[in-house]
Amino acid sequence: MTLGKVDVGGAAPYAIHIGNGLLGNAALLANPLRGRHTLVVSDEHVAPLYGDAVVAALRAARPDAQLAMLVLPAGESAKTFDNFNRVIAALAEMGATRDACIYALGGGVIGDMAGFAAACWMRGIDCVQLPTTLLAMVDSSVGGKTAIDIPQGKNLVGAFHPPRAVIIDTATLHTLPPRELRAGLAEVVKYGAIIDPGFFDWLDAHADALLAMDAPKLAEAIARSCTHKAAITERDPLEHGERALLNFGHTFAHAIEAEQAALNGQWGAGLNHGEAVAVGMVLAARLSARLAMATPDDTTRLTLLLERLGLPVHIPPGLDADALLARMRLDKKAAADGLRFILWDGIGRARIVPGVDERMVLQLLREG
Ligand code: NAD
Ligand code: GLY
Fold first, then answer.
1. 244 and 125, same structural domain?
2. CA torsion through residues 240, 246, 249, 252, sign
3. 144 lines ligand 1 (CB under 6 A)
């Protein structure tokens, strides 16, 4: 059942389809497939749940297709050059031509990595995003950012490569671990925080229903989030301006994720991406209040909503403030003129603030 469709315009337009059971819709899945070579990329958690359905639907609609499935390890620690190379090797193995298509079936890790392989193979082939986490549905599958991690930082190697289509099957959320649902809700809250105070109020009113997996409310949250992401990335696909607002909380989050990875020897240890974004948004709100851009009441409202959604709001113990600050200087969002943050003037009113005093940031990090 189709619940919604969001069209993304610009130089490479595509549609985001939202519905219950869409992975079984053979015509919808096969529609973007221009050539014959078809590679479904998934991970070892998602493939056993949904891989067969996707392959069966594609086979039914396109019996002529040359279809292969690649199953990679799950989780952030798998977003590596090695696994990227395995996607490239699978394309080479099937002799994929320029009209080949990758179907990225999974969360943001698979979507980013398979999308990057699609951007690189023969300088760019189609990628259809089939997101199966809430985070991927509302954020990573839309807008064309693709990447892998390296030890020096997250997403440091990547490309802008818009998907050919995004097909969101909300039924896949039923198998998602509750912790991953909450992580996705952090990115949903982000849209209210940066651009849509009415949506923030709506989330406040329906937090319990969302946590309880109320289907109509979840579908509405996904559609409203995708509408915002689509509009922003259509206006600013390459992040020359407004798109940077989507990084609210992310300078802090990426530093936390990188520092945890350094301490534990692998990406994905400790807080996951959505959880780190929750902490990062609260730190951004606190920094905004300290700079007298917003009131402490705004910080409190954000903190309370995230806590109700079961998300962390403080830096995990054991992370060193100086080390976090050093990571921030390396972040892609750092500019030549010093630390640049996405801060807010209050709920729904985010903006880019360059040249933030490092001492103030360090103080905030020390407080946790
Ligand atoms: P993830 O891809 O690691 O998925 C989380 C876990 O859930 C994994 O273990 C996965 O196997 C499992 N899973 C996925 N779908 C499932 C389902 N339906 N049922 C059961 N288990 C399921 O993590 P994520 O939170 O989806 O994505 C995080 C990544 O996305 C990060 O690498 C982040 O950098 C990236 N990201 C990218 C963008 C972008 O614009 N490209 C935006 C936000 C985040
Ligand atoms: N998640 C940030 C972006 O897509 O720009």
1. no
2. negative
3. no
Q: Which domain holds residue 259?
A: 182-367
Q: What percent of the chain has pLDDT over 90?
A: 93
Lowest mean pLDDT across 82-91, 192-201, 279-288, 351-360: 351-360
Instruction: Return the ligand 1 atom nearest residue 134 CA.
Output: 26
pTM of the predicted model as reported, rounded to 2 decimal places: 0.97
Burial 266-278 (b: 16+ CB within 10 A, else e): ebbbbbbbbbbbb
Which of 72, 105, 110, 135 gets mutated to test ligand 1 (max ligand atoms within 8 A of its CB)? 135
**Whether residues 188 and 171 fall in one domain:** no
Mutate to test the pocket of ligand 2, among 135, 137, 228, 229 (most ligand atoms within 8 A of CB): 229
The per-residue pLDDT for 337 is 63
Local confidence band at 368 (pLDDT 50, 70, 90 cut-offs):
confident
Regarding whether 31 and 13 lie in a shared domain, the answer is yes
The answer on 274 and 248 residing in a single domain is: yes
What CATH number is associated with residue 144?
A: 3.40.50.1970
In the chain, how many domains are there?
2
pLDDT band at 109 (very low <50, low <70, confident <90, very high): very high
Among residues 254, 264, 240, which one has the least CA distance to residue 284? 254
Q: Radius of gyration (Cα) for the chain, nearest Å?
A: 20
189 shares a domain with 170: no
- In angstroms, the CA 342 to CA 344 distance is 7
